[in-house]
């Protein structure tokens, strides 16, 4: 079997959150064919998997061209990751910093596994670009979100799969305020409202009250970043993106 190639095709790692939703819109503006993939790894905030279909439906409704270009959505069962992890994202543990300087929300190997499995899926589907919402400008310090890690993974996948697969990370050097602004530039106020009201980012899976920045507990690191970014975006403080 030889590697297939389609330079008009991208597979977006889509969790149902703010960042990955913005990445889907970004890919739809650039590629003739876009598919999405999500991962069920026993995450505490599994509500993100529940909102994925409605977010995708919302993206289709926003733009006729997006509807035409948006293809299949895939879900991969990665329960083994949750089974071997002992983190605040895969168990009912209090979120805290660890002795190694990383928060216990860090799931070791998560993005490495995501990218490897996504690359295998993309190979089968004839897609040669992976798009992910990894960012090291405004994040929790996860080492598997860094640009250096992405480039190393891209090299490993190219060599190990004898393919020209590329990894695109459009949010890598944006803070959360700039990510909100990027959503507006891609889909206007309608996309911002879709991200605000339909996506899910909260680590605790809280989806009770709708805040001005969206749903969430308002206290976990993910909510704090999202809320602070929305405030900067509304204040117009998104220069440099």
Features:
241 residues; alpha/beta; Rossmann fold; five-stranded parallel sheet; two-stranded antiparallel sheet; 8 helices; 13% strand; globular; disordered N terminus
State the gist of this model.
Helices cover 44% and strands 13% of the residues. It is an alpha/beta fold and 241 residues long.
Estimate the mean pLDDT confidence.
87
Task: Decide which structural class fits the backbone.
Answer: alpha/beta
Estimate the global geometry from the Cα principal axes. Answer: globular
Number of helices: 8
CATH class reads: Alpha Beta
Strand order across the largest sheet: 3-2-1-4-5
From the 3D coordinates, which CATH architecture would you assign? 3-Layer(aba) Sandwich
Number of strands: 7
- CATH level-4 homologous superfamily: HUPs
Beta content comes to 5-15%
Computed over alpha carbons, the radius of gyration is 17 Å
What are the secondary-structure elements, in order, as H or E?
EHEHHEHHEHEHEEH
Span from first to last CA? 42 Å
What about the largest sheet?
Answer: 5 strands, parallel
Unreliable spans are 1-6
Helix content: 40-55%
Q: What is the CATH topology classification name?
A: Rossmann fold
- Return the domain count: 1
